[in-house]
From TrEMBL:
<dbReference type="InterPro" id="IPR039261">
    <property type="entry name" value="FNR_nucleotide-bd"/>
</dbReference>
<keyword id="KW-0001">2Fe-2S</keyword>
<comment type="similarity">
    <text>In the C-terminal section; belongs to the flavoprotein pyridine nucleotide cytochrome reductase family.</text>
</comment>
<keyword id="KW-0813">Transport</keyword>
<keyword id="KW-0561">Oxygen transport</keyword>
<keyword id="KW-0408">Iron</keyword>
<dbReference type="InterPro" id="IPR000971">
    <property type="entry name" value="Globin"/>
</dbReference>
<dbReference type="InterPro" id="IPR009050">
    <property type="entry name" value="Globin-like_sf"/>
</dbReference>
<dbReference type="InterPro" id="IPR017938">
    <property type="entry name" value="Riboflavin_synthase-like_b-brl"/>
</dbReference>
<keyword id="KW-0521">NADP</keyword>
<feature type="domain" description="FAD-binding FR-type">
    <location>
        <begin position="138"/>
        <end position="241"/>
    </location>
</feature>
<keyword id="KW-0349">Heme</keyword>
<dbReference type="InterPro" id="IPR050415">
    <property type="entry name" value="MRET"/>
</dbReference>
<keyword id="KW-0479">Metal-binding</keyword>
<dbReference type="InterPro" id="IPR017927">
    <property type="entry name" value="FAD-bd_FR_type"/>
</dbReference>
<keyword id="KW-0520">NAD</keyword>
<dbReference type="InterPro" id="IPR012292">
    <property type="entry name" value="Globin/Proto"/>
</dbReference>
């Protein structure tokens, strides 16, 4: 597997700067091989290639970590049940992917790379199919919007109830969401912002830049209580290690607060001995939409502290600066379990701070909005 991992990463350098061409060739070849696959995808394919490439990149980066590789792919297989794909679809996608890689890489491609991708794709599809076959849950859940609250122009907090079947998730995980009324067959992932509960209610924090984000835009500006969404199987490993006795550091940027809030809520159900430090950053005071809720949790739980920070608000009476810089001022965090959630630049900066504190990588878990 080590040699396969090397060949995958080496060959990926031939195509990574030509991702648009790679994804365009892949989908053109896929739909030519099997036109019946086209209705499984959104009418507008804008951004679809990015999600394909994110999955490929994640698989490449975990192939030399068998445990993570296995769990990621089994989860991905369970998640892909929402597309109603089967074994024959996987075979067709494998042919299209190899064809796209060869075409995009050009003269740099060789037989070793070709065989490595064949072997890797066979392992990937087998594990995804096994994950799908082992799942007794429905391909997706219908969920009714219960509440919807706007914060400014671009942020909303909404709660939904999954209908008909229990939806089991762990604090810190995320689910794919579809808004069928406005954008059918377009799915986006959002972290669940509350701990599991018997009422089958999930909370989401959604932010959308103005003029961007179809699903996020609909969730922020158009969806109303009573409407129906679809939710896919939970994924993600930014979950609590209940066996650990170490104190906990949580770092959240913007709507990255969602999984951190869920982790704190789960800790509130059993924690008595671990100190939990939450750092919550945004551009301005108005962007700290969840601060009041965090302060309520602090008032109820003596083991919890919250440090808010603003990077572009000189009048803010708390910490000033990027949240990663603020975390660095309060360190070192060498003896903590660390959880980070936010934009890719924010996560990268915070990981550098923790690396400077010699925090072991296995004690750091993160969830990023976009590629690292």
């Amino acid at each position: 597997m080590d040699n396969v991992a090397r060949l995958l990463k080496e060959s990926w350098t031939l195509v990574e700067e030509h991702r648009d061409r790679l994804s365009g060739h892949f989908y053109a070849r896929l739909f030519l091989l099997d036109p019946e696959l086209r209705p499984l995808f959104p009418v507008q394919m804008t951004g679809q290639g990015d999600r394909l490439l994110e999955a490929i990149i994640t698989a490449i980066h975990t192939v030399d970590d068998p445990e993570s590789f296995d769990e990621f792919l089994r989860s991905l297989g369970r998640d892909h049940r929402k597309y109603h794909v089967d074994a024959t679809h996987y075979e067709t996608m494998g042919v299209a992917l190899l064809d796209a890689l060869r075409s995009t890489a050009g003269d740099g491609w060789n037989l070793e790379y070709d065989q490595a991708w064949r072997d890797a794709y066979a392992a990937i599809s087998a594990k995804m199919l096994a994950g799908a076959a082992a799942d007794d849950d429905p391909p997706f859940w219908h969920a009714e919007v219960l509440t919807h609250e706007r914060y400014g122009l671009d942020t909303a907090v909404l709660t939904v109830r999954a209908l008909q079947h229990p939806l089991r998730w762990r604090a810190g995980q995320y689910v794919s969401v579809e808004v069928p009324r406005y954008h059918p067959r377009v799915w986006r992932t959002y972290s669940v912002a509350n701990a599991p509960n018997d009422d089958n209610v999930l909370e989401f924090h959604v932010r959308t830049p103005q003029g961007a984000g179809w699903v996020s835009g609909a969730l922020v500006r158009r969806v109303k209580p009573g409407e129906l969404l679809r939710l896919a199987a939970p994924m993600g490993s930014m979950t609590l290690d209940r066996a650990s006795e170490r104190d906990i550091l949580c770092v959240a940027g913007g709507v990255g607060l969602a999984p951190v809030k869920a982790l704190v809520e789960e800790l509130a159900s059993y924690n008595r001995t671990r100190w939990v430090h939450v750092f919550y950053g945004a551009r301005t005071r108005d962007d700290l939409y969840g601060l009041a809720g965090l302060q309520d949790l602090v008032a109820a739980h003596p083991w919890l502290s919250v440090t808010p920070a603003c990077s572009e608000d000189d009048d803010f009476d708390g910490e000033l600066g990027d949240i990663s810089e603020v975390v660095g001022r309060y360190g070192p965090w060498t003896a903590h379990d660390c959880y980070i959630s936010g934009s890719a630049p924010m996560v990268r900066a915070t990981l550098r701070v923790l690396a400077g504190d010699d925090v072991p990588p296995e004690r750091t878990r993160y969830d990023t909005f976009g590629e690292l």
